[in-house]
Design a protein that fits this description.
This protein is α+β, with helices and mostly antiparallel strands. The chain has helices at about 15-20, 30-40, 70-75, 140-160, 215-225, 245-250, 265-270, 280, 290-305; strands at about 30, 80-90, 95-100, 105-110, 115, 130, 165-170, 180-190, 200-205, 230-240, 260-265. It has 2 domains: about 5-135, no CATH class; about 140-305, Trna Endonuclease, Chain: A, domain 1 (3-Layer(aba) Sandwich), CATH 3.40.1350. It is built from 9 helices and 11 strands. The strands form 3 sheets. Strands 7-8-9-10-11 form a 5-stranded mixed sheet. It has a 4-stranded antiparallel sheet with strand order 1-6-2-3. The two termini are about 30 Å apart.
Length: about 325
């Protein structure tokens, strides 16, 4: 995609729905994709895309709005989707999809291998169809990759004036540390904290699946394994859905009398440009966070103490 900030289209619920609804072997039309990204609610006629009209995914006139068509065009330019055509094989009568890169005068049926001339099948066709490609062509991409991408993107925005190092998908194995073998979806390092300590974040990202008590217990042990005089460690739990009461209860165990480690993020925080653009309309909190300390304290306000206001939830 070209960097974390180039991944902003995945903030859009309709884009994530498009990727989730059409598996690697399913194709869709441009008009169908536009409607999915637009996300009109048939019951209320509300347009879900209206939440994202001020999002900048690439350069455009400052006073103009982002459109679903512009989003799809951007994703095609970034090769998230590939163009192709569907044909009915004259031999086995099964329908198959052929990528634009593989089209020629004669092609072979995907199922029976029969070679046939496609020219007669091109009369009056305007039905280019698209499929996911690359990483997004995998069946399991949605569960972890997109939430990790959005979480890292939000941290990149938050720490825009500070150096941030990160890696993804790490297996953690004990050498001398008192931890159990576990995984972290990412490791984020922010060096040269004002008190001289290095800040580190590990954690778990999901789309809708639950983050288990076992996941949290193992990550807490990882955080506690770092010498506190040299490191300050946070545990980030990110989901593109709301946290259950059990998940919040388990996450509270990450904090104790002397440490606040728990950072909880949902689509409410991952979709806007700044983490708390929407959340600040629902809770009496600061809209702008510029450090891990800010984020962990706001998490505490939202989930572990009563910070509700009368402000309505954004729609």
């Amino acid at each position: 995609m070209g960097g974390l900030q180039k991944c902003r289209p995945f903030k859009i619920q309709g884009v994530r729905d498009l990727i989730e609804n059409y598996g690697p072997d399913k194709s869709f039309t441009r008009s169908g994709a536009i409607q999915t990204i637009r996300a009109k609610d048939p019951a209320t006629d509300q347009i879900g895309f209206s939440l994202y009209e001020d999002l900048f995914i690439e350069e455009r006139a400052f006073n103009s709005k982002l459109t679903p068509d512009a989003v799809l065009t951007y994703l095609l330019k970034k090769s998230v989707f590939r163009a192709g055509l569907e044909f009915d094989c004259p031999n086995c009568r099964l329908e198959f999809w052929a990528a634009l890169d593989n089209l020629s005068t004669e092609i072979a049926c995907e199922f029976c291998g029969h070679q046939f001339n496609i020219t007669p099948h091109l009369n009056h066709r305007g039905d280019w169809r698209f499929r996911r490609s690359g990483l997004f062509g995998r069946d399991d991409n949605q569960e972890g990759a997109i939430p990790v991408m959005l979480m890292l993107q939000q941290l990149d925005t938050t720490f825009s004036s500070r150096e941030m190092l990160f890696t993804t998908a790490m297996d953690l194995k004990p050498d001398s540390a008192k931890i159990n073998k576990c995984e972290t979806d990412f490791v984020v390092v922010v060096p040269k904290h004002r008190d001289g300590r290095i800040q580190i974040a590990v954690g778990e990202c999901k789309t809708r699946k639950s983050i288990t008590e076992d996941d949290i217990t193992k990550l807490k042990a990882v955080a506690e394994a770092f010498p506190s005089e040299r490191f300050e460690v946070f545990v980030i739990l990110a989901k593109l859905a709301d946290f259950s009461s059990d998940e919040i209860k388990h996450a509270s165990a990450l904090n104790d009398k002397f440490h606040r480690r728990a950072i909880l993020l949902t689509a409410r925080e991952l979709e806007p440009y700044h983490l708390y653009d929407r959340t600040s309309e629902e809770f009496d909190i600061d809209r702008i966070a510029v450090s891990f300390e800010d984020i962990v304290n706001i998490t505490h306000q939202i989930y572990f103490q009563d910070a509700s206001t009368e402000a309505p939830t954004p729609v």
